[in-house]
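Let us practice reading a record.
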Amino acid sequence: DVGGVHDGKVTLDEFINYYTNIGANIDNEDYFELMIRNAWHISGGEGAAANSANRRVLVTRQDGSQYVEEIKNDLGLRADDKAGMMNRLRAQGVENAASLSTFDGAGEQRSQGSQNKQLFHPSGPEFVHKGRKNFAQDSQFRLG
C-alpha cells in the first residue's frame, strides 16, 4: 500500500510515493530508469536505460535515403495511422520525410505465408530523474 485516496485519480504525491517504493526494490539504476521510461513512453535515456518502447519508423527522405526515427509523442497513436505518425514527426522537427514504413523497409506488402511485424513499438512526456535517493524532491516531469 502506498497510501492515497482510492478515487480513480493519482496525485503527484501518490505517484512519487508509488515509484519511490518500487525503486527501493530495484538494485540497478539503469533498469529502474528503463522501467519508468518504457511504462510511460518517456523518450530518451542512454545505454541500458534508453527507452525501447516508443514507436520507431523507417523514414524515407526525398532523396531516397532512409533512417529510423523515434516518434517521441506516440501515446494514443494507432499502429495504422501513418498520417498521424507523419504529423507527429513534423511536430518534432522532422522536415525531410517523404514517406515512412512501420515495418522493416521491405515495403508494406505482406509476403504469402508471412506477417510483417513492427520492429519497434510506442512516446510521451520527457522524464528527468536525478537519482532515487531524493526521488520525491528531484524528479521532474514535463511534456516533451
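A brief commentary: The beta strands are 56-61, 66-70, 97-101, 126-128, 140-142.
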